[in-house]
Amino acid sequence: MAKSIDVSDLNIYYGDFLAVEGVSMTIKARSVTAFIGPSGCGKSTFLRSLNRMHEVIPGARVEGKVMVDGQSLYEPSVDPVAVRRQIGMVFQRPNPFPTMSIYDNVLSGKKLNSKRMKKSESDDLVEKSLRGANLWTEVKDRLGKPGMGLSGGQQQRLCIARAIAVEPQVLLMDEPCSALDPISTSAIEDLIHELKSDYTIVIVTHNMQQAARVSDETGFFNLKATGEPGQLVEFNSTKQMFTNPDNEATEAYISGRFG
Amino acid sequence: MAMTTEPRSDRDVTAIDQSTGRVGDVVFAGLARSSGLLIMLALAGVAVFLVVQGSGALGNTGDAVYGKDSIWGYVWPLLFGTLLASVIAMIIAAPLAIGVALIISHYAPRPVAKTLGWLIDLLAAIPSVVYGLWGINFLALNLVPAYDWLQRNAGWIPFFEGPVPNSGRTMLTAGIVLAVMALPIITAICREVFAQTPKMHQEAALALGATRWEMIRMTVFPYARSGMISAVLLGLGRALGETMAVALVLAPSLLVSFNLITAEQSSSTIAANIALNFGNASGAKIDTLIFTGLVLFIITFAVNFLGRAIAVRGVAKG
Amino acid sequence: MTDTTLTPVDETGRHSMPLQGAQLPRYAPGLAAGIAVGIAVLAVLLGGVGAVAAVMIGWVLLAVGLPAWSRAVEGPRKAADRVAGVLVWSAFALAMIPLVSLVWTVVSKGLPILSAQFFQNSMRGILGEGGGIYHAVMGTLIITALATLISVPIGVLSAIYLVEYGKGSKLARVITFLVDVMTGIPSIVAGLFAYALFVIFFGPGVRMGFGGSVALSVLMIPIVVRATEEMLKLVPDELREASYALGVPKWRTIVKVVLPTAVAGIVTGVTLAVARVAGETAPLLIIAGLTTGANFNPFSERMATLPVFIFYAITEPGIYDEEMAAYAWGAALTLVTLVMVLNVAARVIGSVFAPKTGR
């Protein structure tokens, strides 16, 4: 079952630098939650702290609590590798492994965990994942070709297939369409709609229309002031956010008066 | 920074331009170009002089080739020894260098890694004769017990037949010294390519739930494969041409022998052989030694060329 | 897993999130290493095992024990990760042994012999005690300085040709290729080249310091070209264009704008190149030879240098082999110090005089 995420009072640091301060929110299961805000306001940083990818950067650390399924992600007994298996991630730029075929790319995560899969099992999983990512019909005849040979949008969907092949509970997407053309973007947005029934999806986007189109709830991040840490200004249902936001700064941002 | 003086007298500058400017340009460009040509000439010179002097040795027999039947009978054992010592060095150095490079690029914390990289660079700067001195006076002596143990327990393998000399000056010692010398080169190249592995692929692997080692195997090694091969080849090039360390450790010899832990039945290398014999050589013997130098030059050239070709292909591909 | 629709809910494994997979405590590697060391020490004290064997025992205990423990608690994937970690760190430790041992040996054996007299005396008329390396130090300085004098103009000018004039031309490509080839020339071959060249002018059996400089130049030029090329490529084209736009001719632009911007990097590269060739032995062995006294004329007769002095002190010590060995270590320490000072200087130059951006 897809899980909900409870964040309370989260501070995120790079070394001594406080990047994001005091974020609290509840991300609902089986829904799409979007984060919007100007560049450098910490929304990507916050997203990465949800599956402990943040700490990959040397010196990065967090304070506060992230609870998923009743477990705190940052307990010392929790294994970051297990966290990332359960909470998958899709990155800004499509990043299929350059030396692997399409087939191997899809299986790359799964292979880490299962010792030896039967050929039929892996075939099934590849098909299932590629279908799940709406890519199957486009690539089914060239599964052995390198993943880098696909178009940007196809590569991104391949990365989504790779992420869902591991069968995570939550899917984090860090501006997944920012490097794509409008047609590919719309394909990904359609896909997000379909994936919503099985996964909790959190997406960071630069594009407010995109947030309005795909998400059920939206969080607006902004810097307190120049040089100050980023913070969550407002968290609301997308409908309310884009029609009648509670906060003046949100309204200013959404109506295009800054950012 | 030099610009501050220019606007002062625009007119003067243009005036100078038309007179000395053009001449200056021609002269300067000519100087630069002829320096480049000089390099071509120098290298052509190296090849031509070696070929001219060395080819005189092709017909040498008897005393002129130190009692062998022909020049080939003289070159072959040395060539064999050169390859043997270098291959031993690579077998030891390559895995160690990859380990050290991984420590610097992925395992050690950032500030520590920087210091370590610097230390390894210093290791590369130590003169080869000092390595030789250390090899003969410290390493060789301390390896004797290990060689004794090898002979007792693995003596049935031709490599470890012995007898072990008390000095410890054996082919294996030479190989180890060469490994120590080649290690910094291989490490430097490997750590560079490891560090260049795209962050986004590494993060993709981690986000799929890979451990650090799995991430390295999924992303770093495939990305760096051609770089690693070319690093080992360039290290091999260094080991092949290395003179002093081997010259100090091994006695002159013209044997073809796989015995790695003995002094009397050991092979020697081309470079060391030249260094040890050149001082006392004269006449036709000098030609013979120069011919062996030519052979060494061709082999190191081939290995280095291959190494660079692979590196370039790797860059073009990735 | 065989159904083709994505229905994660049906999968029993997905109902709960096993984030809390059993883990070894953070101090596990330290603890395992401690136990391994402890057992190794015990083996020495109680079992009378040799030091090397004890290290081997300790290492095997760590390399097998920690992954085995991890496998039992954390599973095979984490165990593989730990094996890799142990192997990588072991490779590192193993590679550090020669460095530490080499520095320690050179310093501990070289230091006792160093004295003012050691640097003031040569070996002329000396048998056994009282000798020094004055002649070898002078020879090394003279030959290296001459090599620098030959290499720097040729190397820098060639790099200027490659970057500023010949970009993309056939000649430039050929030169780039040849420079690559030159970096791989075995040093002894460079010595043979110088010998073969000088024989033409001076007859067989020629020995002179200048020949050594020529041989070292063959090794040094490619390093200088490479370093300069890199630095010139770093100079932004905007600077050149700004200068052209002021009507400054190309050669003056190069001399007044491009070179000053790149000078710190070039000096660093040259210093590193000097450090590299100052320790070269093989070519000097062939063409410069060895003498017992100081010779200040690089154009006639043999000239002693530190590396060659070390080599002969070990290979042909004569009857006073203990004294000669001591001299060799003293000379080695001097040589290593010289090379290290040059290396550190190069780095300091590189960082202090690097082009200042913004002030």
UniProtKB/TrEMBL annotation, chain A:
Superkingdom of this protein's organism: Bacteria
Q: Which Pfam families match?
A: ABC_tran
User: Which intervals hold domain ABC transporter?
Assistant: 5-248
By its UniProt entry, which InterPro entries does this protein fall under? Answer: AAA+_ATPase, ABC_transporter-like_ATP-bd, ABC_transporter-like_CS, P-loop_NTPase, PstB-like
Molecular function in Gene Ontology: ATP binding
Q: Which UniProt keywords apply?
A: ATP-binding, Nucleotide-binding, Translocase, Transport
Database matches in NCBIfam families? 3a0107s01c2 (TIGR00972)
Q: What is this protein called?
A: Phosphate ABC transporter ATP-binding protein PstB
From TrEMBL, chain C:
Per the UniProt record, which residue ranges are transmembrane? Answer: 31-62, 83-107, 133-163, 175-202, 208-225, 257-275, 326-349
Which compartment or compartments is the protein found in?
Answer: Cell membrane
Q: Which residues form a coiled coil?
A: none
Q: Which NCBIfam families does the entry mention?
A: 3a0107s02c
Bilayer disposition of the protein: Multi-pass membrane protein
The name on file for this protein is Phosphate transport system permease protein PstA
Keywords (alphabetical) are: Cell membrane, Membrane, Phosphate transport, Transmembrane, Transmembrane helix, Transport
Main location (coarse class): membrane
InterPro entries given in the database record: MetI-like, MetI-like_sf, Phosphate_PstA, Phosphate_transprt_permease
Source domain of life is Bacteria
Q: Which family does it belong to?
A: Belongs to the binding-protein-dependent transport system permease family. CysTW subfamily.
Q: Kindly indicate where the leader peptide sits in this chain.
A: none
Please give one Pfam family short name: BPD_transp_1
Query: What role does this protein play?
Result: Part of the binding-protein-dependent transport system for phosphate; probably responsible for the translocation of the substrate across the membrane.
Q: Where is the ABC transmembrane type-1 domain?
A: 137-346
